[in-house]
Every structure is written in C-alpha cells, then in structure tokens.
Amino acid sequence: MNTIRKFLNNLGAFILALLLGFAVWIPATLQADPFIDKEFPNVPITFLNQPEGVILFNESDVSDRATVNVRAPDSLLADLRAIDLRATMDLAMAQPGVPTMVPVDVKSDSEAIRILSVDPEEQEIRLEAVLVVTVPVSIDVQGQPATGYRITSVEITPEQVDVRGPEPTVGRVVSVTGSV
User: Which pTM does this prediction carry?
Assistant: First the structure.
C-alpha cells in the first residue's frame, strides 16, 4: 500500500518530466531538420482507368504536367525530385461525350511529405468513342506539266484509306484529297 501511495504522489512529477522532455525534444529536432515548403513544376500527370474504345477529345486543353507545392523536412527535400511525386487523374467515371471535371491526385512514397497544393487541382476531360471510317482518296492535279511532258492518267494507290479518331471529328470526314 505504501508503494502505491509513493507512486501516486510522484505520478504528477513523472508526467510533468515527460511533457518537459517532449517540449525540449520537439524544437531541438525541428531546429536540426526544419520543415520547408518547396514547389515542384512539371510533375508528369498519368491518366488512369481510361475506358476501352475511347480517346481524349480535348487533349490540347488538358495539361499533362502539374505544379505541386510540398512541405517536408529539409533533409528529405534535398533529394526529392519532380519525378518522385506521382500525379494521376482517374478517368473511370468519365462518360464518352460528356465533359467531366477530374481531380489531379498527387501522392508520394514518403509519409513525411505533405502535399500543400496542386495546380491544376482538376481538369475538364472529354472522352469520345473511337471511330474508324473508310473513305476514298482523290488527287487534284494543279498547274501544267513542264515543257515536253504531258499528263496521261493519274493512278491513286491506295484508292481508299481508313481514318481513325474521335467520333465527332472522324464522322465529318468524307474523302481524303491530295494535290500534285
């Protein structure tokens, strides 16, 4: 009983000593390896879960790079590069023909790295079904041949070509024309 009473009397002092120890240890650790914010431009964005048979229709409007701001200990940031950060966009929920806002998600292998911001945070994605159409090829002969030459016949090889691409664009193709 006496031992328990001694322990309870000293419990407050023990807890206070523990808290003071942490209070000294945390600033000392932070001073030795402080947390720093750093910007990483040109982090490549990978598109995930793109449905079969569709293509990114507004590719020129969608950035394949992101700027990522992170906070981490200085010792960790010294070796961190943009390619060590993984930026992804999950296209699983995007429906063909419907513009969809898809967030840019950035992850790191280290739990000590905190992602502060991503630019762009999200992008509008428009997927379209891939269409293949066969269209005839025609040649337009322009001008006159050089002196001493004449045009006898024009032979077109191949006579037809397959045009492949997003449905709204390929659906408007009627023929393929070249000029000579």
Answer: 0.65
